[in-house]
Structure formats: structure tokens, C-alpha cells
Amino acid sequence: MTKVASVIHWFRLDLRLHDNLALRNAINEAENRKQILRPIYVIDPDIKNRVGCNRLRFLFQSLKNLDTSLRKINTRLYVIKGKAVECLPKLFDEWHVKFLTLQVDIDADLVKQDEVIEEFCEANNIFVVKRMQHTVYDFNSVVKKNNGSIPLTYQKFLSLVSDVQVKDIIQISKSVSDECKGNDYDSQDYDVPSLEEFGINESELSECKYPGGESEGLKRLDVYMAKKQWVCKFEKPKSSPNSIEPSTTVLSPYISHGCLSAKLFYHKLKQVESGSKHTLPPVSLMGQLMWREFYYTAGSGTKNFDKMEGNSVCTQIPWKKNDAHLKAWAEGKTGYPFVDAIMRQLKQEGWIHHLARHMVACFLTRGDLWISWEEGAKVFEDYLLDYDWSLNAGNWMWLSASAFFYKYYRVYSPIAFGKKTDKDGLYIRKYVPELKKYPSEFIYEPWKAPKGVQKTAGCVIGEGYPNRIVDHDKVHKENIQKMNAAYKINKEKKAMKRPRQ
Ligand code: FAD
């Protein structure tokens, strides 16, 4: 008996039904040829060693939501446990797969995987359709328009896309016919796993502030787009890094996982801005989305974008290893309450404001600790709900003045910066509760409080809260000199490489 062939849509960073052309292609193919449709997600059991618990929870919630939505259109999500390059070839054979659709992703690990899978598909007559749907613009076309090189400035990027028409998004509304259902449709073997199966006790995790999933992402988008005045007046530098409730949208976890389409966000923003006076890029909300596009374009066209060595846009800086300082920074125990509050919020909630990211990234690298941005990026990869390969690397390079931004002498003060928007340190009191009884005048610099004040506040520095691991006033000046020297060497090296006239 000949087996009925299957069509697969492989979900990765596109955990949604809206604006998912690759999924629609798979559905149409299955319907037209009366084949079995199997939308899959592959989860590597090793993921728990690479991804923090909060992000894993967000991912599993998103998968559950995706499965629910797929069932509403008479199909389901098949979750496969294993390494994609090992389990997919076997499954393709078992399911007699003839057609595979997926989204174009640029994360270096996914690209490597794709090469192996595509090679297998080619050798086995499996037709592959890949769709560019994670960004507003097709980054390959942007690079092509720039004569094959990546635009190195945001303004240049904006000029390249200024006349590009952004297509409308597509919706999937029709149900899949019964003929396209596999006989394993009801099998629990492919159900979305629980966190417990991955060794995580959900009750031990902190409160879930940002639940994962397309439904949550769309809801959040609607809430923000309904605030027309807020959107039109949005200026990122004026938003607060240390407000207790977020001062920006927190759409990032949804966009990064593909629960929310960047293109849908773009069209909604255009509608809200239309006919009204509104702020402009780089500070507007549209400007934020364009930063994402900018980094995607840069990341897609640069080899080793997430590394210092072998990365053509990254200045080589002789960072030093210091495991004790890195640990203190990651755990929020540097002795600088503002830095520690940010890192603890990150660890607990999985999201921090952009300017808070500026503060801690500058502190780790060129500001205070002189540790490589690659180390910081790894910690962010672990903790951030919105972790994104290109945005994380691109922004870390920016903050460490390794690429895109070069005013290395502008250093964030761990004392003055937070005071601008929260002089009483309410944010610090929330995330560093050992200091919550400190008088406002000492909340950013508790080491300056007299011993008696420290005792009355119930926390002696060096006992209940750490001493500062470095003296900012001293080290940041030394680091500016080191940056200066590194820039000089890089400039000389570049000059030597240039051909003589
Ligand atoms: P909003 O201000 O509401 O902006 C809306 C959307 O625009 C965001 O959801 C995001 O998709 C995009 N966006 C905003 N700011 C930026 C930016 N600077 N660069 C690129 N896109 C932007 N963002 C991630 O999504 N993933 C990351 O891994 C990540 N790592 C970062 C690391 C460092 C060191 C720094 C400084 C920034 C990083 N960012 C990252 C960028 C930025 O901080 C977040 O996108 C933003 O804070 C998310 O919050 P929001 O959704 O409320 O943003």
C-alpha cells in the first residue's frame, strides 16, 4: 500500500498563525494534493541547559497557545523531542514527507541546522519553501540595494527602506479539511511537554508577568495601539528605565518568539500615526521597530556577528576575564544598588527596560568591569524572555562601543543615571529589598551612610549587602584611557591593511 505523503510546516521563531505565509503555503499544498498536514516544533531536550527557566516557560506557553489555535482550524502542533538534524531526517522518511515550509531565521545555530536539513531534503526530493517573515523588510534586498554591503548606520538603513512598500499581512481563516489529518492526530506522544518533564518545578518560578503566546501578544499590541496619544508622543529617551510598571510596550518577548509579527506591529503603528502629529525615528515607537530591522540587516550580512573575533564590524578590545566580577554582576551583587536592582529584575522577570540594559551593559564592559560584551550577551541569552540573536549581539556591541556607537567616553554613572527618574529609589527598594529602609539620600550610595544609619536601616554594608566591587569614579576613567588605546591600535591596523596609493 502506498503511503499518503505529508506536508510539514516547521515552526521555529514564528509561533503564530497570523502573517505566516510559510504556514499557509503548507496548508495549501496539503489541501491541493490531499496530503497529511503536520505542523511541527522540534525541541532539543538539552534546551534547559541553554535557556533560563522563565524563557522556557514563555516558550511552552507559546507552544500551548499555538496548538490551541491550530486545533481551531482542524489541525494540531506535533512537538518532536530531539535534535533537529538527527530526528527530522528519520521523521521525514517515516511520514513520507514531500514538502517542507519554514521561515528564514538568521540565528547562527538555526542557519547551521538549516544547511543540514536542506541538504537532506535536496537529496530526498523534498521541496523546501522558505519565507522571509520575521522582519518588516527583506534584509537581503536591503543589503543588495546597498551594493552588497550592510548599512552601518541607522540613518543609512532608513534611507534604504524609505521607498519600500510593506506588503499587507495574510491571515489563515479557513479550516483544514479532515482528509489532511494524520491517523496520529490524537496521539499524546506529540503533545506540548510540561515544564516538569524538563526538570523545572513551575511553582518555584517567580510570578509570570508576561505569559507567552500569540493571543497574549495580540492582546498586548491592541492595548498599546489603543493609546493613540501615548503612541504619537512616544520618545524612547524620555521613558523611564526604573519605573515599577514598564514605561515601554514589552512587546519584545512576543516579537522575538514570533508570537507577534513585526509587520503587523508596523501596519498598526502606521494606522495610529496616520493623520496625527507624531514623533519620528529614532525616538518614536516606529523608530524602535526600525532599530530591530537595522540590527537584523546588520546581523544577516555579517559573519560571526555574535562574536568579537572574526567579526568585521566589531572593534577588537583587549577585555579581561574576571569570573568573580562577572558572577557578582550577573547575580546583582556588585554593591551598586541601581545595577543590582536591574540585574535582579532581569533574573526574576525576564525583561528590563532598554536604558536599564544600557546601564548594566556599560557597567560590565567599558564603564567599570572591563569584561567582554560576549560574556554579558551570554547572561542576557539565559535570562531575557525576548532574547534575540541579532538584537542581543548588535546592542551589546553598541553599548560596549565595539560597533555602531563610538563615543566611549560617555559612561553611565551607576549613581546619577537612575536618580534622574527615581530619586527616592523606589525601584531599588523593590528589587534590592535589603536596602528598602535606607534614607533616600543614601539609596544609590549606601556605603556613604554612617554606620548608625546603616544599622537603623537594618543592613550593614559588607554584611547584609556587598561592598562595591570596584570604585566607579576611579575605574571608569582608567577604562576610558584603555578604550582610547584600543581604538588607536585598531585604527593603525586598518590603515596598514588599506592599499597604498
Ligand atoms: P519598545 O520600546 O516598546 O519597542 C518596541 C519594539 O521595538 C521592541 O519590542 C523591539 O522589538 C524593538 N526594539 C526596541 N528597542 C530596540 C533596540 N534598541 N534594538 C532593536 N530592537 C528594538 N531586544 C530584543 O528584543 N532581544 C534582545 O536580545 C535584546 N538584547 C539587548 C541587549 C542590550 C545590551 C541592549 C542595550 C538592548 C537589547 N535589546 C534586545 C533591545 C531593547 O532593549 C529591547 O528590544 C526593548 O527594551 C524591548 O522592550 P519593549 O518591547 O518595551 O520596547
UniProtKB/TrEMBL annotation:
Gene Ontology cellular component terms for the protein in this record: cytoplasm; nucleus
Organism domain of life: Eukaryota
> Cofactor note, please?
Binds 1 FAD per subunit.
Q: Which residues form a coiled coil?
A: none
| Alphabetized InterPro entries for the sequence | Crypto/Photolyase_FAD-like_sf, Crypto/Photolyase_N_sf, Cryptochr/Photolyase_FAD-bd, Cryptochrome/DNA_photolyase_1, DNA_photolyase_N, Rossmann-like_a/b/a_fold
Keywords from UniProt, A to Z, are:
FAD, Flavoprotein, Nucleotide-binding
Q: Where is this site: Electron transfer via tryptophanyl radical?
A: 319, 373, 396
Molecular function GO terms recorded: deoxyribodipyrimidine photo-lyase activity; DNA binding; FAD binding
Which PROSITE patterns does its entry note? PHR_CRY_ALPHA_BETA
Task: Using the record's annotation, list all stretches that form the Photolyase/cryptochrome alpha/beta domain.
Answer: 5-136
Statement: the UniProt record of this protein carries the keyword Flavoprotein:
yes
Family membership: Belongs to the DNA photolyase class-1 family.
This protein is called what?
(African queen) hypothetical protein
Name the species this protein comes from. Danaus chrysippus
The organism's lineage is: Eukaryota, Metazoa, Ecdysozoa, Arthropoda, Hexapoda
